[in-house]
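task queued by scheduler; priority normal; single chain, no ligands, no partner chains; default sampling; output format set to structure tokens
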Amino acid sequence: MGITYIAMNETIAPLNKNAVRRAMNRQQLLTVVYGGRGFVKDGIFPHGLYGHNPDLPAIPYDPEAARKLLEEAGYPNGF
């Protein structure tokens, strides 16, 4: 078992805007960065590891909400 994560530099545009980070499709990131190997989790500890919290709320991906978040961040046509 292992934990791997994707770090993002939040000091540079467009990642410096919270709305942009919230609009990201985490499953697509997993697919692009790690070739789809692994699982997207809603917390920092995966199932089977001490500290895992199965009661955390899901972080769903909603394309329509993502479009609105990008528009709010000043990227109505994406980037």
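post-processing summary
- Residues 8 and 36 are 18 Å apart (CA to CA).
- Helices lie at 18-23, 26-34, 63-72.
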